[in-house]
Write a structure and sequence with these properties.
With 187 residues, the chain is α+β, with helices and mostly antiparallel strands. 21% of the residues lie in helices and 33% in strands. It has helices at residues 79-91, 133-137, 158-162, 169-185; strands at residues 17-19, 23-25, 32-34, 38-45, 51-57, 66-67, 70-72, 99-110, 113-124, 147-154. The strands form 3 sheets. A 4-stranded mixed sheet has the order 7-4-9-8, sandwiched between helices. It has a 3-stranded antiparallel sheet with strand order 1-2-3, with no helix packed on it. A 3-stranded antiparallel sheet has the order 6-5-10. It starts with 16 loop residues before the first strand and ends with a helix.
């Protein structure tokens, strides 16, 4: 998919040129627009039985598919703070810290515009009052515009991950990384 703009937003020239689908230049007024990578975060909540919390997406892209709680990083915000904020906004969970897991590139298509993202994933402890993801789900409140529900899925093999209807490829790769780290940590 190529992001197309038909005119310069500064002078209205129809001569705007796209280069490498990430930079637009207007030869008439000299305007440059860069489409740099957007930063996004996701959080893995898991329990001792390897159940992981997933949201059911309430909107496009990939409405109805599973995703990890998360979203885009705001201006002047660290990735860690974005992960904590997104958990509060999307699922109503108050957490105080997250631990880095990995990063993967992703493509996020929204309203026919393709955004390239760098998705940064973290893990977070379940709040002390909960010993399982299922119990934790009962305490959550979905941000209705983003999340239509919650589900816990057990992840013990790569096949378990492959069989999930995940919204984004970066989450699939992250869960494989998480699984490997989790298995190594138990040896």
């Amino acid at each position: 998919m190529k992001n197309n703009f038909n005119m310069c937003p500064m002078c209205g020239s129809k001569k705007i040129e796209c280069r490498e689908n990430r930079k637009w230049i207007c030869p008439d007024c000299g305007f440059d627009l860069y489409c740099n990578v957007a930063a996004a975060v996701g959080v893995i909540f898991s329990d001792n039985q390897n159940y992981i919390l997933f949201e059911i997406r309430a909107k496009e892209p990939r409405k109805g598919f599973l995703a990890l709680p998360g979203g885009f990083v705001d201006f002047d915000e660290s990735a860690e703070n974005a992960a904590i904020r997104e958990c509060k906004e999307e699922i109503g969970a108050e957490i105080s810290s997250v631990d880095f897991v990995c990063t993967y590139p992703n493509t996020y298509v929204y309203k026919n515009i393709e955004y390239k993202t760098c998705d940064m994933f973290f893990s977070a402890m379940l709040p002390e009052a909960f010993d399982s993801v299922d119990a934790f789900i009962g305490s959550l409140s979905a941000q209705k515009s983003e999340v239509s529900g919650f589900v816990a899925k057990r992840i013990e093999t790569e096949e378990d991950i492959e069989n999930l209807p995940l919204a984004f490829e970066s989450a699939k790769k992250t869960l494989k990384t998480w699984l490997l780290k989790n298995q190594l940590g138990k040896k």
